Amino acid sequence: MDDFVAISALQHLAFCPRQFALIHLEQAWEENRFTAEGRILHERVDSGLAEQRRGTRFERGVMLESQQYRIRGKMDLLEIELGDPAQFFPVEYKRGKPKVEDWDRIQLCAQALCLEEMRQSRVTEGALWYWEIRRRENIAITDELREVTIAAINEAHLILKEGLTPQPTANAKRCRACSLVNLCEPETFRKDVSRKYMEEMFNT
Ligand code: SF4
Q1: pLDDT per position as a tens digit, 126-180
Q2: 29-39 pLDDT, tens digit each
Q3: Which residue of 9, 57, 112, 143 is surrounded by the most CB atoms within 10 Å?
Q4: Gap between the Cα atoms of 148 and 106, Å rounded
């Protein structure tokens, strides 16, 4: 096994580093309605062939890799505006709705980083297509988004290298939407941490 991180794993990391570790370090996985719907959606969009319409080429299920960031994965759709130079535009399909947090944007930006390395071209924009509301959102690949994405990539590598599963997220609301809540047992671990803290405080 090499030290590459799956691009799709970055959304788990951004959502909760413990969730990332449970799935990608401990190989724990529990499918629920949301993960099943997401998987079926990606199977549907990945199955198409390349096509070309009015100066734009559409390639589906494109394999991606970055040697610099040690990440790899598969993108749903790559739009290429043909020209000199050609413009590359990653498109990722999502089951749900747009989110305030950067989870989906991080995944898209990681795809852009791979494309830049593989096609030697600057990617300035991509898009997220949300199935539930049938809406496409264009996303600028800004310096800020690149920084957040590279930080997530680095954190993912560190967790895998150290082999340590982080504590539950402090944002307990996320646990209610988490497919791994039964395997993770966040409340048990939170109680353990606070008990340990009290013991250390009174033993010093
Ligand atoms: S249940 Fe909460 S702490 Fe556990 S992996 Fe999910 S979000 Fe993270």
Answers
A1: 999 998 888 899 999 999 999 999 999 999 999 999 999 999 998 889 998 888 9
A2: 665 656 666 66
A3: 112
A4: 7
Closest C-alpha to ligand 1, atom 7: 175
What CATH number has the domain bearing residue 190?
A: 3.90.320.10
Q: Which domain holds residue 24?
A: 5-203
Q: CA quadruple 62, 44, 138, 109: dihedral positive or negative?
A: negative
What's the gap in Å between 57 CA and the centre of ligand 1? 40
d(CA 50, CA 154): 33
153 burial via Cβ count (<10 Å: 0-12, 13-18, 19+): buried
The yes-or-no verdict on residue 8 having pLDDT over 60 is yes
What is the number of domains present in the chain?
A: 1
Residue 56 CA to ligand 1 centre (angstroms):
41
